[in-house]
Specification:
By secondary structure, the protein is an alpha/beta fold. The chain has one domain (3-244): Rossmann fold (3-Layer(aba) Sandwich). The protein has helices at 15-28, 51-59, 65-68, 79-85, 92-105, 127-134, 148-161, 182-203, 222-230, 233-244; strands at residues 3-8, 33-36, 39-41, 71-73, 108-112, 120-122, 125-126, 138-142, 166-172, 207-211. Strand 6 (120-122) and strand 7 form a beta hairpin. Helix 1 (15-28) packs across helix 9 (222-230). The longest helix has 22 residues, at 182-203. It is globular. The structure holds adenosine-5'-triphosphate and magnesium ion. Residues 15-16, 51, 112 line the site of magnesium ion.
Length: 247
Amino acid sequence: MKGLFIIGTDTGVGKTWVTGALARALRRRGYDVGVCKPIQSGNLKDDPAGDAMTLRRLADVSDSISDICLCALPQPVAPQLAMRLSNVDIYMEDVVSFCRRASNRHEWLFVEGAGGVAVPYVSDAWVSDVIRALDLPVLIVARPGLGTVNHSILTIEYLRNQDIRVVGVVFNRSSALCTENDTDSRLMVLLEETNASYIRESTGVPVFGALPHISSFTSELDIVNLVEENINLRGLLESLGSVYSGD
Ligand SMILES: Nc1ncnc2c1ncn2[C@@H]1O[C@H](COP(=O)(O)OP(=O)(O)OP(=O)(O)O)[C@@H](O)[C@H]1O
Ligand SMILES: [Mg+2]
């Protein structure tokens, strides 16, 4: 299986948007990228507001929603708990087989996790166990600002301790700047710029770029245009290439 497992430093950082938009941008360049959200909590599979449907629209793939999402649970809580509340059991092996089937339909598969890396995910495993079983490298989505260096480095080290390869980080400003004056907002911009170098210097992991906040949308595709303009896609492809060439 070739692809990426996308996790966040937290929930709500923009994994779905970044995953879908990256897939779309690469598909525009001729790469056959598929997407999946094996376990979704908080929305049913065919809910247009859910991650699986959002990924399908953003990536512009024709896979059926059941080929993108294995299990959707109504309660908006961590997947393992949502399963317990719905009396459902899904095991790591089920997710691995599901992703294998999805990866047979595409050259590359981008798999969105749930929340961060230390998350109870299926009945018998956490997110990191599943990433290891899938043997996929990880892309981390983080929100830029105060705490980003700490959250990103902790996530990278946690993954590495479990022998999981980290391809890089993408910053996404999923919420607007909470600043009251220009000095604060200049400080936030400085933070964003220095965050990337701290992460790179400390871990060697590259930050492929930062997506600005979209305050008013013309269409969902705005995020794809932002990816085209702000993310070093060539760098991402090179990092992926080196994973799969065994460097
Ligand atoms: N750059 C951005 N500008 C404006 N809004 C954004 C941006 N990125 C994400 N959002 C908004 O933030 C919300 C969270 O984004 P998204 O669903 O991609 O996060 P997530 O990490 O996948 O969350 P979850 O942990 O629930 O899967 C979305 O409702 C989206 O509308
Ligand atoms: Mg999501």
